[in-house]
Automatic annotation (TrEMBL):
It comes from the Bacteria. SUPFAM superfamilies: ISP domain (SSF50022). It comes from Elongatibacter sediminis. Residues 3-107 form the Rieske domain. This is Rieske 2Fe-2S domain-containing protein. InterPro entries: Rieske_2Fe-2S, Rieske_2Fe-2S_sf. GO terms for molecular function: 2 iron, 2 sulfur cluster binding; metal ion binding.
């Protein structure tokens, strides 16, 4: 079962965060546009389980293009989700499977949230 997340143009230069109702509470996601694709992960830092951004829709990146957690500076490769430096080096973000259908982004992984789905 898939769930519509947003229109692709809603994902800004610094990403987009979402909070979705879920059977086990709220699922927090972060979406990024990369080379014409959309990549998505749970917005949960493997260091202390916090969201990586401090402000809505405003994620931070290093000069090398790594996604950087705003709390303690762990940096992640958006292609793999792996932490490449910082306090949780070697850990990884949890990926979320999304599809772009026309101009809309859909969550399609088995952990899809309840409600608002097709
Ligand atoms: S919570 Fe992300 S680096 Fe500490």
């Amino acid at each position: 079962m898939a769930q519509r997340l947003c229109r692709i143009e809603e994902i800004g230069e610094f990403g987009k965060d979402l909070a979705l109702p879920h059977a086990e509470g709220t699922r927090y996601l972060m979406l990024f546009r990369r080379d014409g694709r959309v990549v998505a992960y749970d917005n949960v830092c493997p260091h202390h389980g916090l969201g990586l951004n401090l402000a809505p829709g405003r994620f931070h990146f290093t000069r090398d293009g790594w996604l950087m957690c705003a709390h303690h500076g762990a940096s992640f490769d958006l292609e793999t989700g792996s932490c490449v430096s910082g306090p949780c080096r070697g850990a990884a973000l949890k990926p979320a499977t999304v599809e772009v259908r026309g101009q809309e982004v859909w969550l399609t992984d088995p952990d899809t949230a309840a409600g608002g789905s097709e």
